[in-house]
Design brief:
With 437 residues, this protein is of the alpha/beta class. The chain is 38% helix and 18% strand. The N terminus is likely disordered.
Length: 437
C-alpha cells in the first residue's frame, strides 16, 4: 500500500519522501489543532495492540469506541510529576495473527519509540507482544487471557522466580474459573459428568493442566477426548464419547468458528438433548457469537471478565459501567459487550502506572511502577503487590447466561449475571436455567 501511494504521488511530481513529510506535518498540525503545542520530549507514546479483524474480531469490536473515550479524556495532555505531557495512543490491529502481533510490537518499539505497550485479548495477541517487549526492555501491560497461559505459556516455571522484568498481566486465571464453575454448576442438579473440549493451544493446555484436576477434586467426572487442533471440522468422535458417557455439563475454550461447527454437529447428532449446562469460554463472550448460532445459542452459559453491572468507574474517563455500555450502543447501534470494560480497564491501569512512575519517559521507572501498582479500574481491583506469582494480578470472572431479551428490547438477547463468587460486589440478576430445559 505504501508503495502504491508513493508511486501515485511521484507521478504528480512529488517525491515519496516529500509526500510522507507533508503528511506527517499535516497530521501533527491536526493533532495539535486547538490545543497547546508540546515539545518532542513532552509526548508520551502508548502502543495499544488488539485483534480488530479476523477470527478473534469479537474481542476488538468495541476498541475503537473505548480508544475514542480515552483520547478525549487525554486531549489536553496528562499531568505527571508536575509536568504536562501530550499523549499519543498508537493502536494496531493484529488481524488475529500471532506473527503479525509480534511484528506490530517490534514496529511500535523500534520505529515509533513507544514509552508503554498495552496488549489485550487472547494469547494469540498478548504473548507475542509481551515477548517482544521483554526482549526490548519496554514496559508492557496486558489483560484478557488466563494468566497461567501468559506466565507459564511464555516460559516461567512453577516455584521458580519470575523471568519477566518488563511485562505484567492482570485478570482471571484458573483459580477464578474454578470458583466460578463450581458456583455455577452447583446451581442446577446434574450427574456431575463434564465433557471437555480443550484445544491444543496456550489457553487449552493451561486449562487442561490446571483446571481439570481441581474440578475432579470437587467430585466432577472429567470426560476428555484429548486436545483437538484449531480448525477441526468433524467432531463426531468427541460427540459419540460424550453421548456414551452421559455427560450433562459441557465445557470448552474454543475460538468461535470451532465451537459453532461442534455445537451444530452436537445438535444434529442428538448430544445437546442431554446437556443441562453448556459452559463456554473464549467463545460465547459476545452477542455476535451467540446470535450466529440461532436457537442453539439460547441459554448457553458464559463467564464475564466485565459486565455493565460491575459497580466500578473508569479513573481515566470517569464513566460508569452503565454509561460505558449505553454510550457504546448509542454510538454504534450494536449491543454492548464485556470487552468494553476490559479494554477500558487496561487503559485505566496503564495510565495509573504512568502517573505512579517517578519518570514516565524512563522505561525502568514505568516497569517499577507496574510491579507495585495497586489501583481500582473499570473491572475492579488491580494489585500487583499480592499476586499468585510476580508480574500477575488476578481478577474476577463472573458466571453468566444468554437468555431471550424482554419484550420491547432493542436486541434479541440479554446477558444476565447468575453467580458472583469471584466478586460479591457484582449483583446477581437471574437464576441459571438448564440448557435443555
Amino acid at each position: 500500500m505504501t508503495h502504491s501511494i508513493g508511486s501515485k504521488y511521484s507521478a504528480r511530481g512529488i517525491s515519496r519522501r516529500q509526500f510522507i513529510a507533508t503528511s506527517v506535518a499535516g497530521g501533527t498540525a491536526l493533532a495539535l489543532g486547538g490545543r497547546k503545542a508540546f515539545a518532542a520530549g513532552d509526548t508520551l507514546k502508548v502502543g495499544f495492540v488488539s485483534p480488530r479483524t479476523g477470527p478473534l474480531a469479537g474481542f476488538g469490536q468495541t476498541d475503537g469506541y473505548v480508544l475514542d473515550l480515552a483520547r478525549k479524556a487525554l486531549a489536553n495532555g496528562i499531568q505527571l510529576g508536575g509536568k504536562t505531557y501530550n499523549v499519543e495512543i498508537l493502536d494496531q490491529d493484529t488481524q488475529s495473527d500471532p506473527s503479525r502481533a509480534g511484528q506490530l510490537a517490534k514496529d511500535l518499539i523500534n520505529n515509533q519509540a513507544i514509552d508503554l505497550m498495552l496488549a489485550v485479548s487472547t494469547p494469540e495477541v498478548i504473548n507475542p507482544v509481551a515477548d517482544a517487549c521483554e526482549a526490548a526492555g519496554v514496559p508492557c501491560l496486558s489483560t484478557v487471557m488466563p494468566w497461567e497461559a501468559w506466565y507459564f505459556g511464555r516460559g516461567a516455571k512453577p516455584g521458580a522466580p519470575s523471568p519477566f522484568k518488563w511485562t505484567y498481566h492482570f485478570g482471571f486465571g484458573v483459580g477464578e474459573f474454578f470458583k466460578t464453575y463450581i458456583s455455577q454448576w452447583n446451581l442446577i442438579e446434574t450427574n456431575k459428568k463434564v465433557g471437555v473440549m480443550y484445544p491444543n493451544d496456550a489457553d487449552g493446555n493451561a486449562i487442561r493442566a490446571n483446571l481439570a484436576p481441581l474440578l475432579a477434586k470437587q467430585g466432577f467426572t472429567i470426560v476428555d477426548p484429548g486436545a483437538y487442533e484449531t480448525g477441526t471440522t468433524d467432531y463426531s468422535s468427541q460427540i459419540a464419547l460424550f453421548k456414551q458417557e452421559g455427560v450433562e455439563i459441557f465445557n470448552s475454550f474454543p475460538i468461535p468458528p470451532d465451537f459453532a461447527a461442534f455445537w451444530r454437529q452436537a445438535a444434529q447428532q442428538g448430544l445437546i438433548k442431554q446437556i443441562k449446562i453448556c459452559q463456554v469460554a473464549k467463545t460465547g463472550l459476545f452477542p455476535s457469537d451467540i446470535e450466529a448460532l440461532g436457537d442453539l445459542g439460547m441459554k448457553i452459559s458464559s463467564a464475564a471478565y466485565w459486565h455493565k453491572a460491575f459497580p466500578y468507574k473508569s479513573p481515566l474517563t470517569g464513566v460508569s459501567g452503565t454509561e460505558l455500555a449505553d454510550g457504546y450502543e448509542a454510538a454504534s447501534g450494536k449491543q454492548w459487550t464485556q470487552q468494553l470494560g476490559a479494554s477500558m480497564s487496561l487503559l485505566d491501569a496503564g495510565f495509573e502506572a504512568l502517573k505512579a512512575s517517578a519518570d514516565a519517559k524512563d522505561k525502568a521507572s514505568v516497569a517499577k511502577a507496574l510491579s507495585t501498582l495497586k489501583t481500582e479500574t473499570m473491572i475492579g481491583k488491580v494489585d500487583f503487590t499480592s499476586g499468585p506469582v510476580a508480574n500477575v494480578s488476578p481478577g474476577p470472572i463472573i458466571g453468566t447466561q444468554w437468555v431471550a431479551a424482554k419484550e420491547g428490547s432493542k436486541f434479541p438477547l440479554d446477558y444476565v449475571v447468575t453467580e458472583n463468587a469471584t466478586d460479591p460486589k457484582v449483583p446477581v440478576e437471574a437464576k441459571l436455567q438448564p440448557y435443555n430445559g
